[in-house]
Amino acid sequence: MRLMTIVLLALLLPYSAMAQKKTSAASVSITDRRFVEEAAAVLVAQIGDGIAESEPRIVFGKVSGGTGQDAIVYFGYEGLSGGNSVHEYLAVYAAIPSRPGLSRSRPYRLAAVKLIGHRGWRSFDSTRIVIRNGVITIPGNYWKQEDAMCCPSGNISTTFKLQNGELVEVKK
Q1: What does the alpha-carbon distance between residue 122 and residue 146 come to, in Å, rounded to a whole number?
Q2: Mean pLDDT (the chain, rounded)
Q3: 133-153 burial by CB neighbour count: b if 16+ within 10 A, else e?
Q4: Residue among 29, 21, 32, 23 nearest 108 (CA)
Q5: How much is the pTM?
């Protein structure tokens, strides 16, 4: 029994220390990152149909005007309801600031969700999301009139910002 306790402590102590560690890229704790991953999984499941699956991509940066690192979540579905459609979404989870003497029940709140692309309109490269000066920029492609549905050939770079609780596209 004593040996089992020692083994369990040896396994759990690194995890406990890791949960308090900050990631250097965005100064977001692993605990906060896990919260966003779980919240994003719930959002993806709620918007989806239970058939098509999506693996969200999460990027941290400042977009809500607060002091913390907000979470920007890109996710998409191919084959909703068994079809061959593609739908792409962007969600923003705004960081909830810590306040002395007050405890917060969670580190983030869902601030906005927006359909940003679908087959026949435009498609984005989620690996190249950039957050700068409070705006989110994502490069991608759009379908020209002569393009087949498989292959958009027009290049775009689209910018979004959080405005009055809504994710809006910034017109250039």
Answers
A1: 14
A2: 85
A3: eeebbbebbbbeeeeeeeebe
A4: 32
A5: 0.81
